[in-house]
Write a structure and sequence with these properties.
Chain A is an all-alpha fold. Chain A has helices at residues 2-19, 31-43, 60-74, 79-90, 104-131. The model of chain B has no long low-confidence stretch (mean pLDDT 93). Classes of the chains: A mainly alpha, B alpha/beta.
Amino acid sequence: MNVRRRWFACLLAALMSTAAALDMGAPLADPAQQALYDRLTKEVRCLVCQNQPIGDSSAPLAADLRREIHEMVAAGQSEREIKQFLTDRYGDFVLYKPRYGGPAALLWLAPALLLLFGGAVIWRVVRRRAAMPVDLDDDTGPPAAD
Amino acid sequence: MNRFIVPIIGFAILVGFFAIGLNLDPTFVPSPLIGKTMPTFSLPRLGEPDQTVGSDDMLGRFTVLNVWATWCGGCRQEHPVLNRIAEQGDVPIYGLNWKDDAALATDWLRRLGNPYTATAFDEEGRVAIDWGVYGAPETFLIAPDGTILYRHISPMTMDVWKNEFLARIAAARGGS
């Protein structure tokens, strides 16, 4: 019931966000800071509507987190410090792009491991087939007319 | 026979992954604060804005911090349970009134009963961010030394109270 209610709230929020522009805070004087702020609001997950970044979500928590990040960027904090601030409170899940390390290392290494595994399988199959004697009797062409 | 073994094993592994993955609740986000010292705060007290209530008041005994708001349906649902827990009187409940209207919140406590030893009024939601709150109601269990032992998300029930909160308090008391 709780999940369904949350979905409904997210749906409503999504509909409303098309009507009303989000308060993204005053533009920052330093273009580099503005770029950092823009990037972070796209990379930080809104935990209320989990498939929206906070820059897209009209949930009140997303607005609070935008304000918080806006203040931290304006105070000259680095991307690393701000991400640390967020993950200390909400865990790695708050970042769309998980950081390397810990259990997330498996996530990052999985594509390479799967590629190696697939390559090994193909290599074995190809070698086994190459070692097979060529069967000259297995004539799949049309029977010779005589 | 032999050529079927590999696909069958692969299928079994997939089924295992799905069995676990599809039964997880994607809206549940574990708190990185469990086992850490609670974030310090000091906020105006709901109903008595000239007084403050904060993390210092919660030290020295097992306490509970309940995040609630009048706009939150689950909070209304759990409110009778909180009243019962407060009546039992074993563990003081502190409230964190999150992004709410002070008049509405005061009225809510007058009408539904006030289970809280004190309620901190977090109008801007800054303390809630420090606590990693993302959806009311949330209820934290805090040890006498200020360590966060557990967080429950979604409305409190007597079962959760007994099995998750009181059991942890008993375990912590027995262990020390």
